[in-house]
Amino acid sequence: MHMARPKWLYLAGTLPWLAGPASATAHQPAPSMADILAAAPPSAWRALPDEHTLYMELPAGRVVIELEPALAPRTVANIEAMARLHYYDGLAVLRVQDNYVAQWGDPDGSRKLPGELQKLAPEFAVPQGATRFTPLADRDGYAPQAGFIDSFPAARDKAGGLAWLTHCYGAVGVGRDTDPTTGNGSELYAVIGNAPRHLDRNVTVVGRVRQGIELLSSLPRGTAELGFYATAAERTMIRSVRLASELPPGERIHLEVLRTDTPTFTALVESRRNRHDDWFVRPAGYIELCNVPLPVRPVDARR
Hints:
single chain, 303 residues, alpha+beta, Cyclophilin, 2 domains, nine-stranded antiparallel sheet, 5 helices, 17 strands
């Protein structure tokens, strides 16, 4: 991502607004999101880890999913084991429900898994432990506190010592039946509509689509109940799912996501909480967790 640096940034010499919103003055325009990203140092970004990044190949292109083992360690390990077994190859997108989710898995339940992968205790919330939590100052209606862990939208119960990933747009979760132990990762979904936060702590969320969400959100909607496809002909085939680390370096996509534990991100949140673009008449003074952008950019692997 290459953006022209605004002239006023050169004149300022330093970037005091990266320390927080209080630095803005009447003589210095409030920075936009583009300004903030243009001025972000390399340390404000982190690379997606190849060992925890999935490439789902659809007829229309590649969907890049970053998994988060810190928030669902056993489930992520299950999914990565299935990817190494090429379990998902030839399966299909089974369900696309408007303003909700796109879900994929085994259409007829005939593909068998090794016994150790079949049952798994749910990881709806896990001990926060050493994970770095960046709280969002704004009130959240679904959790005691919302924020970010490792550039993933998350929430926590600080008193109970628990944290979990949230159902924001692009979140990837684990389909299950009524029995919570049936969510073993063999069936996954991505959120493609308004954030269904009521699902938080009822489903294990394992990661986030970092690139290619439009390939899922633009699929035809299913016409059967809950957006399932009524016929096999309507489904979209999954050509393959691979861990990035399985592929030769030349076949990998090198992406960086903005870190959520830096002054750059603090400034970005403030710029979206109080929009000072000419178009806005009344800044909201508030931002909801799932409305905070999490920028991703391609990088040159030779750097």
